[in-house]
Amino acid sequence: MSLRVLSLNLLKNNRNFLQNAVRNSKGPGAQALAVAPYATQVTVQATPAAVQKQKVSKAMKAYLERAKEHDDFMKTQDLEFQIGKRHLANMMGADAETFTQEDIDEAIAYLFPSGLFDKRARPAMRSPEEVFPARKAAEFDETGRPFHSMFYTGKPNFFQLLHDIVEETNKLYDLEERMLRRGNKPDENQKLETAGFQLLPKDQLERVLVEHIADIEYQNFTNAMDRLISLPYSYKSKAFIERYLKPLIDQSKQLEVPKPKIDEQGRQYITTYECLRKTARADVTVRLPGTGKITINGQDISYFSSEECKEQLLFPLNYSEMLGKVDVEANVEGGGPSGQAGAIRWGIAMSLRSFVDQEMIESMRLAGLLTRDYRRRERKKYGQEGARRKYTWKKR
Amino acid sequence: MFRKQFGNLSRVSTHLSRNVLAARVASREAEMSTNAAPAEAATAPPVVNEFRTGVGNPGEHSDVQIGKFYTIPMEEKKQIFSGGGLPKQYEQQIKTFTEACLMVRSPALELLNYIKRADLSKPVVRYVLYGDNGVGKTLSMAHVLHYGMLNDFLLVHVPWAPNWMKRPKESANSASQEGFIDLPFDAAAWLVHFKTQNSKLLERLQLKTSKEYVWSKRESTPAGSSLIELVEHGIARIKYASETTAALISELKQLATAGQCKVMVAIDGYNAFFHPITRIFSDNKQRVSPDRITLTQPFLDITNYDWTNGVCILSVDKIAMTEGYMESYLPRYLLGKEGFEHLDPFVPVHVGNYTEKEFTSYIKYYLDRHWISKTQPGFEEQLKFMSNMNPYTLMQLVRGL
Amino acid sequence: MATNLVRLLEGSIRSNNAGVAQRTLRVFSSQQQQSEHSAEDDEEFRVLNLRTVKQQARRRVIKKEVVPPPRTTHMPVDQDWTAVWSGPRSFHPASVPLPLRQGYTERGAAAPSKYANAELMKIPNFLHLTPPAIRQQCEAIKKFCTPWPKGLESEATWKAIFPVEVVTTDYCHSLPTIRHPEARRVTITLKLSDLKFDAHAKDKFLRLVGDRYNQETGVLTFVADRCPTRKQNYDYALYLLTACYHESFITEPWEASKSEADMEVYLFERNKAKLSAEAILNWNANGEKQAPSATYADSVEKLINEGENEYNIAKYKEEVLKMLKIAN
C-alpha cells in the first residue's frame, strides 16, 4: 500500500532536478534509464499522499520537511554513487556500462588493501540503499491522523503481529471445537514439520518489522508462535507460520556424507581435517580395504600408553564393526594423550560415515560419536584453589 | 538401545580383567589338585594339541613348532631361573598356571640355528637380541639358555645387568684396584646364581684353576683347585666376591679356549655396561661411570672375540638406559660408539611382536588355563587391536586386578 | 550518451549544492525566515515578548569560511586518472571521486564517509598503480629494454653458464637521503655441485665455509655487508669464494695428525671394526692373511654413516653371517 502511494507522490510532489534532467536530455532512453532506479529506490521512505490546500498539522509539516530532505539526500547519494562507479571503472580501465557490484568490490579491495579482521570494517563502496537502513514511511495522514489503530503503542507492526498470531490461534481453536463436535480428528499426515526450522531470530524479526523490540517482547512473540505451532490444526495456518520460520542450515550440512576418493593403490580413502578435542588437533585418513593397521604420527597404537586412550581410539571402529577392515592414519599434535585420542576418535568416526550405511550413521550419531566435544579446560579463579574447588576452610 | 550397546563394548576390557578373579580361583583349585597328585602330574605325558608341542628339548625345535608352547620341567626351570632370568610377571604367571611354558618363537629358533651351525673352534660369535619394549627378548634368551643347559654349556648368565648400575645392594671401594668400586653383594649373588646353574656340570667336568690366586696375606686359592672351590670361596668371603668373579671368568675363558668346556654367555640388558653414568656414587659424591665398577670388566672381557668354544647371547634394551637415552631400540644407538666397537662384528637378531598365528595360539593358551573365562564374540579382535599383538601389553591387558 | 548523462548529473549536483548553500543561508538569516513563516502560517502561536526589541540580546553570528566544493565534482568521468594521481600518496577525500565508506558501526547506522575519515588514510592505497597506470609505465620503459640473449631461453641453460647468483636490494623511500644501509648487502649463492673437488678438498672446503653451506639444499651462500659500498662487498664475496676454493686444495702438514674424533665420516679402514674382523678371520691362521670383504666394510660404513634403520641392520646382519660362515 505504502509503496504505491509513495511513488505516486514522488512524481507529483518533488518536481525537482530529476524531472528537469529528464526533460533536458532529449532521448526517451535516458528517461527510462534515469527513472528506473528511483522508482525502486523509494520503497519505504517518502512523503505521504498529496498535500492539499486544507489545514496541515504542524507534525505533518515537520515530517514532510524531513521526508523531503531525506529524499533529496538519498538522491544525491545515488548520483554520487553512479558517478563514483563510472570513475572507478575509468580508473581500473574497465567499461563503465558493464561494471557490476562485484567488480567494484574487487577494485576497492585492490586499491585499498585493508588487513582489518572484520570485513564490515574495511573500506567499501556500495549503493546508498544498502548503506542507509530503511526508515518507516509516514504513519499518519496530512491531518495528523494515524493510519494504524495501534499507532500509539509505539510499535504498531509488532503488536499487529502479536494480534495476528492470536487471531490465528483463536481461529484454530474454533476449528478444533467444530471438528470435535463433528467427531473429526486432525490429519496426522499433514502435521506441521518444524524439525530443522527455527523461529526468526530477534534481529531478523526487527528487520522485517522495521521496529526495535525488547527482549521480553521477542519472548512474547516466540511464546505466541510456539503455542500456535503446537496446536493440532496448525497445518491449517501453515502459510502464516512459515513466514516467521527459518531453516536450520548447519544440521543439513553436517548430514552430507563426503564421497570417498581413490588413492594410488586403488583403495578408497577419506581424510578428515581439523579434528579437534581440547587443545589437540588431528587429521585422520581412513582407507577402506585394509587390515586394521593403525598409524599415529608414524607409530602404531602403542603411541598411547594408557588403556583408556586405546579404547577411545578403537571405539568407533568397534561400534561400526569395521575393526580390521580399514586402515587408519592419523597425524595429531597439541594437547595431552586423552585429548589426542579424543580428536582421533572423532576423526575416525567422521571418516567412517562414508563407508557405512545410513542406519549405522544414525546409530553412531545417537551414540555421540559424531558430536564434537566442545569442553575445554576451565580457568582457575582467584581466591580459589582451582576452577571450582575452594581453599580448605579452617575455623582457626 | 544404543546405550546398552555402548556400555557393553566399553566394558569389554574390564570384563576381561574382572574375570581374572574367577580364573585365579580356578587356577588355585587346579594347583591344589596338582599338589595332591604330584607324582601323577610328573609322569603324565605332556599334552599335545594345536597350541602345545610335546617336544621338550629346545635342540629339536624347528619351524614346525613355531607358535606352540613347550613345557620346561620344574626342576630344570628351578636350576636355570631360580636366580632370575624370567620377567617377574611371567614368573607370577608360571606360578598361577602351575607350569613353566614357553612359546617357540622364530627369534629363538633363529638363534638356536646359528648356534648349532657355528664352528666352535672359531672365535665366539656375539648375538645381539634387540627389539621394542615387551616383545620377548628375555624369554627368547631363556629359551636359548634352556638349550645351553641341556647341551652341556657352562652358563654365564646375567639376568639383568642394569641392576648393578641402577640399584646395587652395596658398594665399596675396591681394595685391589685404585679408584674402582666393588659391588660385593651383587657379585656374590651372581656367584650363587652361577653355582646353581652349573654345579652339576662343574662336578662332572672337574675343571681346575690354572694359577694361584692370592686374596690376602692369609687367604689364597692354589693353582689346580677346582672351580667350585673358587666359587664357594667367593660366596663365603663376600669381600672378595668381585675379584673371584673376575678370576672365574678369566679361568672359564682359558678353559674354553683349551677345549675343556663349552661356555654360553647370556647377558640381558648388556647396553647398561656402556651407559654414560650409573647411580653409584664414589667417595667424592660423584656418579661413577660403569667402567669404574669392578664387575664390568670381566663381563666385557668375556664378550670379546678373543676366545673360542663359546657363544655369547646379549640383549640390548631401551629400559636398561635412563631418560634421554631411550629414543630408539636399535642396537647401534643403544650400545653407543664404544659398545658397538667392542661387539663388532655381531649378529643382530630382531625380536618383534606376535604374528597372527602366535597371537591366536596365546589366546588359546589363556583360554585353556581359564585365565580368560568370559568370551563375548569378537573379544579376540579387540585384544588384538588393543595390544597391537605386543606380548607384554597383551599380558597386561588380561592381567588380574 | 554517457558523457551527456554525466554532465547532467554534474549539473544536478551543482544545483543541489547551490540549494544546500541557499538553505544554510536561510537558516542563518533567521529574521527574514521568521517573517516568511508568519506570513505563510497564520496559526503560529504569538510569542509574548516582555522585553523590548532593544533589550533582546543579540546573538552573535558566527562567520564561517565558505568552503569550496571538492574538486572531485569537476572531474569528468573519462579523465586520465594517472595524471590526477601520479605517485604514491596517502588518501585525500577531495581528490578521489569515489563515494567510499569505511568503519565499523553498530547495526542500523551507515559507515563513516570518506571525509575526515582517518581510517582511510591509515591503510595503504594503490591508486597510483591502477592497471592502466601500470600498462602506461611499462610502455614507457620498454625502450630501455634490450632483447634477451639468444641461447639462454630456459633456466637450465643459463644456470649451467652462470651458476653464481648475486642478490642485491635497491631501496626506494622518501627520506632526504637516497642511501639505505641495507643496499650495500650482497648475497651470492651457488650450488656446491657446480664446483669441482676431490675428497680431501671437499671436506676441507665444507669445514672452511661452515654454516654457509646448507646441507639439505646443497646451496652455498655468502653474505657480505662489511664494506661501505656494494661494489666492495661484491668483490669481497667473490674473493671469499675463490679463496676458500683454492685453500681447500692445499694440504697442510698438520692435517696428517687428524684423529678419529675429527673424522666427519666413518671409514671402515681407519676403525677398530677392521681390526676385529681381521682378527676373527685370521684366528689361528699362520699362512696368508684373509681380509674382510668389501661388502662387509660397506655395510658397516652405511650402518654408521646413514644411521640405523631396519634395512641397514638387516644388510649388516647378512654380511656378518656371511663373513662368520654361519649363513644358511
Describe this structure in words.
The complex is a heterotrimer of chains A (396), B (401) and C (328). Helix content of chain A is 46%, strand content 9%. Chain A is of the alpha+beta class. In chain A, helix 12 (307-319) runs parallel beside helix 13. Chain B has 401 residues and is of the alpha/beta class. Chain B folds into 2 domains: 2-106 and 356-397, no CATH class; 125-350, Rossmann fold (3-Layer(aba) Sandwich). Chain B contains 16 helices and 11 strands. In chain B, the strands form 4 sheets. In chain B, strands 4-9-10-3-11 form a 5-stranded parallel β-sheet, with helices on both faces. In chain B, strand 7 and strand 8 (220-221) form a beta hairpin. In chain B, helix 4 (74-81) packs across helix 7 (137-150) and helix 11 runs parallel beside helix 12 (296-302). The model of chain B is unreliable at 1-44 (pLDDT under 50). With 328 residues, chain C is mainly α. Among the domains of chain C are: 81-145, no CATH class; 155-255, Double Stranded RNA Binding Domain, CATH 3.30.160.20; 263-323, no CATH class. Chain C has 11 helices and 4 strands. A 4-stranded antiparallel β-sheet of chain C has the order 1-2-4-3. The termini of chain C are far apart. In chain C, 13% of the residues are buried. Chains in contact: A-B, A-C, B-C. Chains A and C meet through helix 2, helix 3, helix 4 and helix 5 of A and helix 1 and helix 5 of C.
Features:
heterotrimer; A: 396 residues; alpha+beta; Ribosomal Protein S5, domain 2; 3 domains; five-stranded mixed sheet; C: 328 residues; mainly alpha; Double Stranded RNA Binding Domain; four-stranded antiparallel sheet; 4 strands; elongated; ribonucleoprotein (chain A); Small ribosomal subunit protein uS9m (chain A); structural constituent of ribosome (chain A)
